[in-house]
Amino acid sequence: MNKLLQVKKISLEEKKEYHFCHTADWHLDYNQYQKKERWQDFINAANECTKLIIDEKPDFVIHCGDFFHHFKPTPGALRFAIKILNKYKEANIPFYVIRGNHDSSRAQAQRYGGTILKFLDELGYLIYVQDEQINLSDNITFTGVGEYGQTIASKIEEVLRNNPLDNSKFNILALHGYLQGQISDSIFDITGYQLASMGFNYIALGHYHKQWEEAENNIYCPGSTEQTSMNDWGKPDKDGFFKKSGYYSIKTSLTDGKWNLNIKRKEFNVRPKGRFKFNFDDTSSIEDIIKNANEFVKKHDLQDAIIRFDFIGELPSGKQHLINFTKLPAIKKSNALHIIPNQQVSGILPKKGKSGISSQEALIDIIEKNYGFKKSGTAKWLNLMTETISILGQKTISNQEADEVKAIYDLITEISDEISESEMTRVKLVKKKNVSKPQKVSTPKKTSTTKKPVTKSVKQSNLSQFIDGGE
Questions:
Q1: Cα–Cα distance for residue pair 466/288, rounded to 1 Å
Q2: In which domain, by residue range, is 425 found?
Q3: What percentage of the chain reaches a pLDDT higher than 90?
Q4: 372, 421 Cβ separation under 8 angstroms
Q5: CB 3.0-4.6 Å disulfide test: which of 64, 101, 226, 308 passes with 45?
Q6: Number of other CB atoms surrounding residue 154 within 10 Å
Q7: CA distances from 132 to 34, 97, 98, 193, 334 (A)
Q8: What is the pTM of this model?
Q9: Alpha-carbon distances of 303 from 237, 273, 333, 338, rounded to whole Å
Q10: 3-class DSSP state for residue 403?
């Protein structure tokens, strides 16, 4: 229903000055990273925000949605929410809330007797404004519209058709949603200019988790009180860590028929969050890369923080698997609450491979330069590849050939995974000492008693020659 309601009046009807606070996106009950500390962080942030607001003693508070992270909050989250809301109640500060997409969907808001916000409203802990306009006093109106995605503009117009604005009053609009230009790929069909042209004096936004302003149109978004993803992390301090969240404190006064605005952002501390990038290339040895990366992590470690490390670089093709940054000692011993390692290691072909040489020439170059094989050993590798491709290219493969292919790939995988360039010399020496006792390639036992053991074929002979050659 879109009726003009006298829900809550501020005590002084003839008051010409008002003070209110604007917050949003508390996301209570979010258990980020499955850590109880993060669940508590969202409660703590809402508490810190509340302490500062109550100290200001505003006339009222506007919350622009996503009060909870789930539309069915846990009993623990609900209990903490009531404790926080009761502080506003005891301070006689009306707390107005609109629906965010996390509080409930549009459909859920209309079913089963309403949302959890409606429940808290009926208990007297907050005032739930659901797509309607209400009078807060004789001089101030509040229009609240929940999350409607791309149809938000038509929903606002629907509310205003039933409740035209009185331009002599101070008119507030609260929304939960994105505007065009707020995010790079926004497809939403309303702009700040459109909203400003509707005649509102202050437009309060929620949904976008970073602080965002379009001051020329009196549009403000405080951002979330805690951050639900790395995309929410704002501008870091000099040490690289983001440590603050906030809300808006607004004072307005009527002078000579015009409403004047004084808007300030108030901030409070949250858990530190930082993102750091470590770059490397193939000009350094793997040992040096690992050593430098470990020192980099130590340098940016911070007690109880949330840290993302991006390890980005290039190594010669075939060597990418030799580095695993997640196992750095500094990461394992970190004092941070949570570390997010992101490893992006791309393989590069030899330089002359970019000038149009054949794929076989490129393979030879990789095998010789990256794995230290001589030309004779390289030829054997290529023979193995050719034979394998030939077998796999047939329409049917015999059991014996299938076993041979498996044996070939088992050996290639074993060699590729376990032998680094630094180990190659040692392996060659071992092979020379044991040249009189070539190792046989074993195959899995057959479950069927009718199958004969695999005999040594021409392909396996080549494989044995390759092992014995050790080049």
A1: 32
A2: 360-444+452-469
A3: 56
A4: yes
A5: 226
A6: 11
A7: 37, 12, 10, 22, 50
A8: 0.73
A9: 16, 11, 11, 10
A10: helix
